[in-house]
């Protein structure tokens, strides 16, 4: 089902408030149904059943039951149409629009570059369908996390934590979750060295903060640059909580990972920004991690998975630490 944009008027009509509380189990089940049905007569758009449940529960997934999702998926597999199934659900269009803003770029066909098993010094390209977005932490690099969205923060002023912290070692490669354009780089007293990347459809603004002291960014990254999902963009650190640049005032090294939804450009920087809980999404993204390699001479990491290494003319033969855990 598509939501038709309303004609412009003196007062612009756009979503001003949204939450995303879909649990991991529902995300994973709906995603797998989409992937399994791809190319079939009745391909399931995974956002539709999730929006259906959002409308059914009023957005409160604390009452989520597996059988509810199984029931709607079975109807869709049998060829029933979501327009008919949701015709009496007043708020289905709202939830579909919100969940599409969150998940719209997640699934699709994508190209992946892998090492040629018959010639390890070369790479080959494969086409796949599934998660085309990546975990924000590179493959084989460990991290820990818990649902900390909304937790209290007091530096500067009392506020709620509007992101998701991934505890990882300093120097761990940070990955671009989705392809997009680098809108922001540089120092912020709260986030330290940080990066802001906007999705091509302009609906998602990804925020990566507390990057490494002295060398926070992947060497080729600049504002205005287009990055591919899976690219290495920076390195985990503990900078921030300081009006002075390049200061480590965060106690524990970690990546602050945030996602802002933007339904109108006026929302990008305002008093009512829409940031969402990323705990369940981060768990889902662990199913697709970017493989990296490290160039010993420069200590820079490049993504094999996204083709970043190939485009930078970095090959496995130059590297003795492909996807090695640890800091640089």
Distance between the termini: 47 Å
The residue-averaged pLDDT reads 91
The helix tally amounts to 7
Radius of gyration, Cα only, in angstroms?
21 Å
Summed up, what is this model?
With 328 residues, this protein is α+β, with helices and mostly antiparallel strands.
Structure, described:
With 328 residues, the chain is an alpha+beta fold. It folds into two domains: 24-104, no CATH class; 134-318, Glucose Permease (Domain IIA) (Distorted Sandwich), CATH 2.70.70. Helix content is 20%, strand content 25%. The protein has seven helices and 15 strands. It has helices spanning 24-37, 47-57, 66-77, 82-85, 92-103, 279-285, 308-311; strands at residues 107-116, 119-131, 152-153, 159-160, 164-167, 173-175, 180-188, 192-199, 204-209, 226-227, 232-235, 254-261, 274-275, 292-295, 300-303. Strands 5, 7, 8, 9, 10, 12 and 13 form a seven-stranded antiparallel β-sheet that branches. Strands 1-2 form a two-stranded antiparallel ribbon. It has a two-stranded antiparallel ribbon with strand order 3-4. Helix 1 crosses helix 6 (279-285). 39% of the residues are buried. The model is unreliable at 1-9 and 319-328 (pLDDT under 50).
């Amino acid at each position: 089902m598509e939501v038709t944009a309303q004609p412009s008027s003196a007062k612009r009509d756009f979503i001003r408030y949204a939450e995303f509380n879909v649990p991991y189990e529902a995300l994973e089940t709906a995603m797998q149904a989409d992937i399994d049905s791809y190319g079939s007569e009745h391909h399931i758009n995974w956002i539709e059943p999730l929006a259906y449940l959002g409308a059914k529960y009023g957005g409160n997934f604390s009452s989520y039951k597996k059988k509810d999702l199984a029931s709607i998926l079975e109807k869709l597999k049998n060829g029933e149409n979501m327009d008919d199934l949701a015709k009496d659900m007043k708020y289905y269009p709202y939830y579909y629009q919100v969940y599409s803003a969150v998940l719209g770029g997640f699934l699709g066909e994508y190209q992946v570059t892998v090492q040629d098993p018959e010639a390890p010094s070369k790479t080959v390209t494969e086409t796949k369908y599934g998660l085309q977005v990546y975990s924000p932490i590179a493959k084989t690099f460990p991290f820990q996390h818990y649902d900390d969205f909304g937790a209290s923060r007091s530096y500067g002023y009392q506020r709620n934590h509007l992101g998701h912290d991934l505890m990882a070692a300093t120097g761990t490669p940070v990955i671009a979750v989705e392809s997009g354009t680098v809108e922001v780089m540089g120092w912020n007293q709260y986030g330290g060295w940080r990066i802001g990347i906007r999705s091509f459809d302009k609906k998602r603004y990804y925020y990566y903060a507390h990057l490494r002291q002295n060398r926070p960014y992947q060497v080729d990254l600049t504002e205005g640059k287009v990055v591919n999902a899976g690219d290495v963009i920076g390195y985990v650190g503990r900078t921030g909580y300081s009006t002075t640049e390049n200061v480590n005032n965060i106690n524990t090294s970690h990546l602050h990972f945030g996602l802002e939804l933007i339904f109108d450009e006026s929302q990008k920087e305002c008093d009512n920004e829409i940031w969402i809980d990323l705990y369940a999404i981060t768990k889902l993204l662990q199913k697709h991690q970017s493989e990296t390699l490290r160039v010993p001479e420069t200590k820079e990491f490049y993504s094999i998975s996204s083709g970043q290494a190939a485009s930078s003319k970095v090959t496995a033969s130059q590297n003795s630490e492909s996807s090695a855990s640890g800091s640089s």
